[in-house]
Give the backbone structure.
Amino acid sequence: MTGSNVAQELTREVLNTISRSQAAVVEAIETLASAVQSVKPDLPWVSVPFAEKLPTPRALVASAYDFAEQVLASQRKFADDLLTATAPLLATATPANGAKGENAAS
């Protein structure tokens, strides 16, 4: 198995573990919410000025993730631009294993 395959398999396993953990947490919260719903008292309605202008929790989460995606895309472009800018330096390097050019870096 090559290093790339090992990295891909490790990435896949980490993502699967995260997904299973998140599903377990969501299930636990759903169970808790159902249990609490049946015993919680009715709360009085509280009017908050300008409440209709506030974003919903779902909108806040969506906005935060949209922003994070934009930052990540910007950082990826920055890293790619740095690799492009330093490519002439990397192409003239003498790799320890005797390979030349970009193949040595991968």
